[in-house]
Model the fold of this input.
Amino acid sequence: MTTQFCLFETALGPCGLVWGQHGLRGLQLPERNAAATRAQIARRHPEALEVTPSADVRAACDAIVALLSGEKRDLREIVLDMRDLPPLNRQVYEIARAIAPGATLTYGAIALKLGDRTLAQAVGQALGKNPYPIIVPCHRVLAAGGKIGGFSAPTGIALKRKLLAIESVHASGSPSLFDSLRQAN
Done:
């Protein structure tokens, strides 16, 4: 099977999914329009052919659309192809993937889960290279003290704030970091 991709509309704009026989290879967040999103996919995956998605890929698109529309969705059922990624990145992505909508972790907390608190910067670097944003929810990872931290997607931290705001309705129990994010704006 060759590498394939499709574009699909979300509440944030046109996203793209790239996949191969072993699972999803990437998610492209919206650029300024569909042509720009398609061009970014071509830069990252020049071998990818645009096709009509299979039922499994369409289900992944639908789940992402639902999450970005404010529905509580767990995207962990989407199969990711991480075979070509460094082992540390795979570990970071698996930990980040376990963060539920409406919840957050810090870079330092992920480093502790990896067994070495000095890896916080490496965690940030791995998340900055995340080929599966939203599916590996790097937007749910904050800097120390609940600060927003960075975000390497188009429009940077503005998009991270938007994603956190979309998911904040799912926070349950006591006040969360989302409350401090809203008060800071």
Notes: Residues 4-68 form a domain with the Double Stranded RNA Binding Domain fold (CATH 3.30.160). The first strand starts at residue 4 and ends at 10. The radius of gyration is 16 Å.
